Amino acid sequence: MRVLLVEDEPKIAGFVARGLTEEGHLVDIAGDLASARAWLAAGAYEVLIVDRMLPDGDGLTLVRERRDLGDRTPAMCVTARDRVGERVEGLLGGADDYLVKPFAFEELLARITAIARRTTDSATRVMVGDLVVDVDRHRVVRGSREISLTAQEFSLLRYLAENTGHVLSRSRLLASVWQTFHDPGTNVVDVYIGYLRRKIDGEADPPLLHTVRGVGYVLEDRSAGPGAR
């Protein structure tokens, strides 16, 4: 995703930008409303992350301006002030989500992934090699073989399929699929990857679910060479 981060605190901006870049996203940073407007005038973004307290005004103003222009780009407001009234104001003002500082990066990543998914027209069928994930019908087929999955297995496979070719860390999978942000010691991701691998990668099929040691997991078709899907 291409992300515009509107944040005037250099340490926070650097921390978030580094994390998003490591996850494969493109990030532009604006330190105030004026710079943010200039970035938006120059190109389109898939997600906006906007601090409420900026040197030249309230970041929510920017979100309201974009909504008035008909721009439905998913937007998350971030603030150090944890007041219910302010969160309600942000959501009613056009923000898709609200996050209070300090926050864990994994939670930020999961939340922006979620708002991007629900506010865009995502594909109802995802294909990876001869594997078909039919989101609307909650159906998975590989070749001529229909695969029965539990709800949690399907959620994990869907997320992997929607990010085909991208190596996903355990912490990202834990945050995005299980909405768990603070339990790095759990092995639930590895357990469910094992379940999926046994069901998706049969003995006669070339493997689609791969482990990248020390990093995480990736779903991709490698049978036709690099870059195959």
In N-to-C order, the SSE pattern is EHEHEEEHEHEHEEEEHEHHEE
- The average pLDDT score comes to 85
CATH topology grouping of the largest domain: Rossmann fold
Please bin the fraction of helical residues: 25-40%
Radius of gyration: 19 Å
The second-level CATH architecture of the largest domain is: 3-Layer(aba) Sandwich
**CATH C-level class of the largest domain:** Alpha Beta
Shape: elongated
Q: CATH superfamily of the largest domain, please?
A: Response regulator
Summarize the biggest pleated sheet.
Answer: 5 strands, parallel
Strand count:
14
DSSP helical segment count: 8
Number of domains: 2
Distance between the termini: 19 Å
Alpha-beta content class: alpha/beta
Strand order of the biggest β-sheet: 2-1-3-6-7
Beta-strand share of residues: 15-25%
Given as residue ranges, the uncertain stretches (5+ residues, pLDDT < 50) are: none
Structure, briefly:
With about 230 residues, the chain is an alpha/beta fold.
Question: Would you kindly provide a written description of the structure presented here, covering whatever features stand out?
Answer:
The protein has two domains: 117 residues, Response regulator (Rossmann fold); 95 residues, Winged helix-like DNA-binding domain superfamily/Winged helix DNA-binding domain (Arc Repressor Mutant, subunit A, Orthogonal Bundle). Helix 5 packs across helix 7 and helix 6 packs across helix 8. Helices cover 39% and strands 23% of the residues.
